[in-house]
Amino acid sequence: MNNKLLTISRNYFSKLTLIALTGVIMLFAQGCKKFLDVPPKDQVPQSTLFKDEQGFKDALIGVYLGMDKPNNGASYGLYTTDLSMGMLSTMAYNYDNAYTVQNVGVGGAFYNNVVAYKYLDGEVRKEIDGIWGGMYNNIANLNNILVQIESKKEVFHRDNFNRVKGEAIALRGLFHFDLLRMFGKSPVTGSAEKAIPYVTQFTIRSTPFVTLQAGLDSCIVDLLAAKEILAATDTLGVLKAVDDPFTSYTQNHLNYCTKEILKMQTYIQRL
């Protein structure tokens, strides 16, 4: 009798243990699901990102950050290295390249191949692909901002709608202008030859290549459009001191004055 009761008790407690473990596993699984449902800080759903003015500011600031190392972009950085003091300056022999190659340390072999214009070298090819992909990643993000902003004008305060839209269009012109300079031929001999795609739509469809001349014309169209928008919000006559760093420090943005200089460079390149 005692053995029978002992067996029943053991079975009873085994079932309780199983039920308890099952409950713990279910709670853990539910917790994991909630944890996995939380997006990373740098990956926010569009419906959340573009619901208010701050979301549009964050998206535009994300493009400015992408001028360094965007997703799938250049390993050494775009405007922080490759397109400023790094790859392009080395190719243009702005330095004593023999000295540079011997003293740059990390990346010495890379710059040695850049100096020799060995574009098919594995690391050089990867960096060129990273520049191309990184620039178009930034352009895609700008086009997305420009698509979303047209139906959300009511979420903006003061003149921030014009500021975000104007800077986005100007940046699109800048990125295409530099792509044309890097991947197009000289305007003297190759203005009628295909250069790059000029992308103005947020789409997964491929965009056909345009000639260097057509690309420069499109840059000017974007820069003129940006001028009209930013003139009312970003010129010295209308700037106002505010407690918003986004509008107080536009010298760190592609602002009205910088855009005018870029437009002048584009006209010179087109001549």
Low-pLDDT stretches are none
CATH topology group = Serine Threonine Protein Phosphatase 5, Tetratricopeptide repeat
Biggest beta-sheet profile? 2 strands, antiparallel
Can you tell me the CATH class? Mainly Alpha
Mean pLDDT: 80
Number of strands: 2
Radius of gyration: 27 Å
Can you tell me the overall shape? globular
The total tally of domains equals 1
Report the β-strand fraction as a percent range. under 5%
- Give the oligomeric state of the chains in this entry, treating copies of one chain as homo and distinct chains as hetero: single chain
Brief sketch in words of this structure:
This protein is mostly helical. The protein is 64% helix and 3% strand.
Characterise the protein shown here:
The chain has 271 residues and is mainly alpha-helical. It has a single domain, classed as Serine Threonine Protein Phosphatase 5, Tetratricopeptide repeat (Alpha Horseshoe), CATH 1.25.40.390. It is 64% helix and 3% strand. It has a two-stranded antiparallel ribbon. The model has no long low-confidence stretch (mean pLDDT 80).
